[in-house]
Amino acid sequence: MKIKSQLNQIIKDALDSANIETKEDISVSDATKPEFGDYQFNGAMKLARTLRRNPREIASDIIKEINTTTLISKVEVAGAGFINIWIDNSWLSKELTKIIDDKRVGVGVVADKKRIVVDYSGPNMAKQMHVGHLRSTIIGDTLANLFRFLGHDVIPQNHIGDWGTQFGMLIAYLEELEEDNNRQNLQDLEQFYKDAKVRFDKSQKFKDKAREYVVKIQQGDSHCLKLWREFIDISLGHCEEVYSKLGVKLTKDDVRAESFYNPMLPKVIDTLKDRGMLVESNGAKCVFLENSNTPVIVQKSDGGYLYATTDLAGLWFRANELKVDRVSYVVDARQSEHFKQIFTIAKRANMVPDNVKLEHIAFGTMMDKSGRPFKTRDGGTVKLIDLLDEAVLRAKETIKDRDSYSDSKDLDRVAKAIGIGAVKYADLSINRESNYLFSWDKMLSFDGNTALYMQYAYARIASIFRKYNQELNGKIVISDELEHRLGLMILKFEDTLLKASEDGYPHIITSYLYDLVTLFMKFYENNPILKDNIDRDTQISRLLLSKLTANTIKKGLEILGIEVVDKI
């Protein structure tokens, strides 16, 4: 339900009726307190500057023309010229009743459908995924879920590094292991890489072979390509295990590796040359941008290419072959300057049309309690799969004494949903641009803005319906302030998702869910549902409002990639 767009149209019609012309971008916003109404309009103060009139007088002229027969029950001028707006209870009741059994909980499909690439995760092929890959993976997957749910055509892309000198060393070592029938080393990619590097440093013969294999890969040698593909498949297998635990939807079909763009790199250089953008500096081919002292090198003096060249090829391919409208790179904030440069070059060189939106979905670092980047006790990187396994174990300890689970499998299922959900929600609940402190105690708390708080609210509603256990027919009738606020919050779901998708901020969704659940808990405490002393129509209405709340929580968490549970 796009309430804001309806209110903005009502305000626009009122301005027209009051003969007030404006080119200002003015719109309603959520009220900050219940006593200020449900929404506020502060445009009168903006108009006062251009019209040179008192803002309260302008606001008074506007409210005289506002239609209060359907959506709006009351408007009033407040303060220096605010217009407070209250939504009508009858309208709320009718709209909520309409969506009781709607799987989309009242959220429509966008009229302006876009084709969007979401580039995320990007694991290293020679190493197992570590905590440094967590944020890109879950933020990216959430945005892909969100865009897809709103009706956009989403193309997930997992950009992996699978090209370069290190792969000669790795496949030469893989070949030796296969000759010795010793594949056990590949269970731990970190150790495999270290062992290959030791072999490379100690044996000149092995070093020469590794370098020879690099050339052979590039020349398309069938034997070396077979080993290279085998190693990539093994590496991706480790990634898929992590994706499965996380509930992330990336597959091998979504991989778009560096090697894919390799044939396009000469074309990038030719395009930049044709546009007159290339400058040779110490034998390297570069692009110089205004307000930057550092050139963007696109080809080294020895003819080799760089990350910038590959990313420019990727942008060209996505804009011209995939025909996208938007490209979202979910990558560490430390790469901000890099993306700013390649976006500028791609647009200036006409590799990407002006109407294609290019954005860097930047994110901060996950920190430990001391405020330092998250590491193991000995200073090493924390493997992501170990972190997820620990989350499930800790979740099991948190809930094992709270309810009687039918069997150990039931407990394991709930613990996984809670543990994985806790890790994901803790990350998604903060502004992605911020660093955040990783805390097991905080993320597995039943209080505050946590996944467990959301899951517990859903489980509480499920328990209500287990106790009620009857057919549920009727309608929602909003009759008090708490019901009004809860019902309105449910109808704000679509506006919330649209806002989150606009700039790629998942924390807008988590903030909404926290407000929704907090309101429901107040409603639950103050509005009896199953007690015998309430009339049948009121009971049905409150049950239906509870059902809609549960449906909204479930859909919101589903977009975040988090499961709900029926009991905790």
Question: What's a concise summary of this model?
Answer:
By secondary structure, the protein is of the alpha/beta class. It has 21 helices and 13 strands. It folds into four domains: 3-87, 2-Layer Sandwich (Gyrase A, domain 2), CATH 3.30.1360.70; 115-161 and 257-363, HUPs (Rossmann fold, 3-Layer(aba) Sandwich), CATH 3.40.50.620; 166-249, no CATH class; 394-559, Isoleucyl-tRNA Synthetase, Domain 1 (Orthogonal Bundle), CATH 1.10.730.
Can you offer a commentary on this structure?
- With 568 residues, this protein is α/β, with parallel strands linked by helices.
- It folds into 4 domains: 3-87, Arginyl tRNA synthetase N-terminal domain (Gyrase A, domain 2); 115-161 and 257-363, Rossmann fold (3-Layer(aba) Sandwich); 166-249, no CATH class; 394-559, Isoleucyl-tRNA Synthetase, Domain 1 (Orthogonal Bundle), CATH 1.10.730.10.
- 52% of the residues lie in helices and 10% in strands.
- It is built from 21 helices and 13 strands.
- The chain has helices spanning 3-17, 43-51, 55-64, 89-98, 134-149, 166-179, 189-202, 204-219, 222-246, 258-261, 265-274, 307-320, 336-348, 384-399, 408-428, 440-443, 451-468, 481-491, 493-503, 507-526, 536-559, and strands at 28-30, 39-41, 72-78, 82-87, 115-119, 153-157, 279-281, 284-287, 296-299, 326-332, 357-363, 366-367, 436-437.
- It has a 4-stranded antiparallel sheet with strand order 1-2-4-3.
- The longest helix has 25 residues, at 222-246.
- It is globular and about 85 Å long.
